[in-house]
Amino acid sequence: MNDFTQDPTLRHFHQAAMHHPFPEWVATSAIPTRKDVEKNASSSFADASRRLLPVHDPVAAFHSALDLMAHPEYYTENIFERVKKACALFGITKDLEPYAEFFASKIEKSAAVTEPLVNYAIDEQFRDHDYKLFPIDTEEQIKDASYKLVNMAFENRLPYPFFYKAACRVYKAAENLNIVDDVHPQIAEAGVDRLIDKNLTLEKLAGRERFARFGDPELVRAQYEEAVNETCVDKMICKIAAVDLVAGVPHKFRSTAHIAMPHAVVKTGPLVSTVEKAAREHVSVDDVLIPLTEIQKIPFRDAMFALSGLASQDFKKHASSTDAKDLSLAILDWKEGDKRQLMRLALQTA
């Protein structure tokens, strides 16, 4: 009998992460191994008699809870209770709710279907046929799928919508296993999450109508410009691809191609991960970004004296957080005087 500390595949963890991204405090921490916990006292394991399911810290308790959800048949009710108590003690019960729903649904399906749950790069229905190609549950599968997808696209054996959705699935799987540098560069270009920069997109679309084989070029150009009004990255890409299809604009999966792929036209903005990191680390005050570390240097008494009642309560509640977004959101409702006072206090401590 093994638990996750002795499982080299960690398949159910990868499936859970693809269903719902792990919280940052979990994703950035190493998964405990048997070597990490072998010297722990038996009391630090939920299954003390077999020394399984360590619960000595939040990360171990999180992964033990996932292990237990994936294999409930291996453990007794008492072990369930010990894991639940550990999660409650560390305050991580809420973080585990999406995975409890996922594994409950998975177990229900497996009761009726004997096939194991497998994630595929291509998982589409087309003309009453299901197409499931290239599993992406392990590192080797993800790497292999990324190169096979590009090869199929290069040989014109894969329609662009299939390629784009598959690339996003593969890249997300690679992110979950922290192997994004190992996937094919064209998969990374298509799958990575970026914000929209409409001006750059319009620049890249300029003159694209010249390659249209059908329809009036001016009308095609207007359709491209209309597609750029979309605020969702994926919807904008799909609309541009649809205009390409109707106008006969060819998609060439070559680095030397004259016509950029729809995702390369749209994904021109900053990385979402970079923006999110900046939002976590900086407090926004009227579009001025102040490092959270500088805000946290402000003496509490100074803030209470300088800020009004609502603002001082928000400062007290959110300034000590490791995520600046909550304070940034609260500041949106502050009076202008409080905002100026906060910037003045931050400058004094800089």
Question: Topology, pairings included?
Answer:
Blueprint lengths: L10 H9 L4 H4 L6 H4 L7 E3 L4 E3 L3 H13 L6 H14 L2 H20 L7 E7 L2 E7 L3 H16 L5 H17 L8 H7 L6 H8 L11 H11 L5 H15 L14 H5 L5 H10 E4 L2 E4 H4 L4 H7 L2 H10 L6 H7 L4 H14 L1
Antiparallel strand pairs: 1-2, 3-4, 5-6
User: What's the Cα radius of gyration?
Assistant: 25 Å
| Broad structural category | mainly alpha
Give a short account of the largest sheet: 2 strands, antiparallel
Count every beta strand, where a strand is a DSSP E run of 2 or more residues. 6
The pLDDT mean sits at 87
**Tally of individual domains:** 4
Oligomer designation: single chain
**SSE string, helix = H, strand = E?**
HHHEEHHHEEHHHHHHHHEEHHHHH
Written account of the structure:
With 350 residues, the protein is mostly helical. The protein has four domains: 4-112, no CATH class; 135-191, no CATH class; 198-266; 273-349, no CATH class. The chain has 19 helices and six strands. It has helices at residues 11-19, 24-27, 34-37, 58-70, 77-90, 93-112, 139-154, 160-176, 185-191, 198-205, 217-227, 233-247, 262-266, 272-281, 292-295, 300-306, 309-318, 325-331, 336-349, and strands spanning 45-47, 52-54, 120-126, 129-135, 282-285, 288-291. The chain has a two-stranded antiparallel ribbon with strand order 1-2. A two-stranded antiparallel ribbon has the order 3-4. The protein has a two-stranded antiparallel ribbon with strand order 5-6. β1 (45-47) and β2 (52-54) form a beta hairpin. α11 (217-227) runs antiparallel to α12 and α16 runs antiparallel to α17. The protein is flat, with a radius of gyration of 25 Å. The relative contact order is 0.06. Residues 110-114 have low confidence and may be disordered.
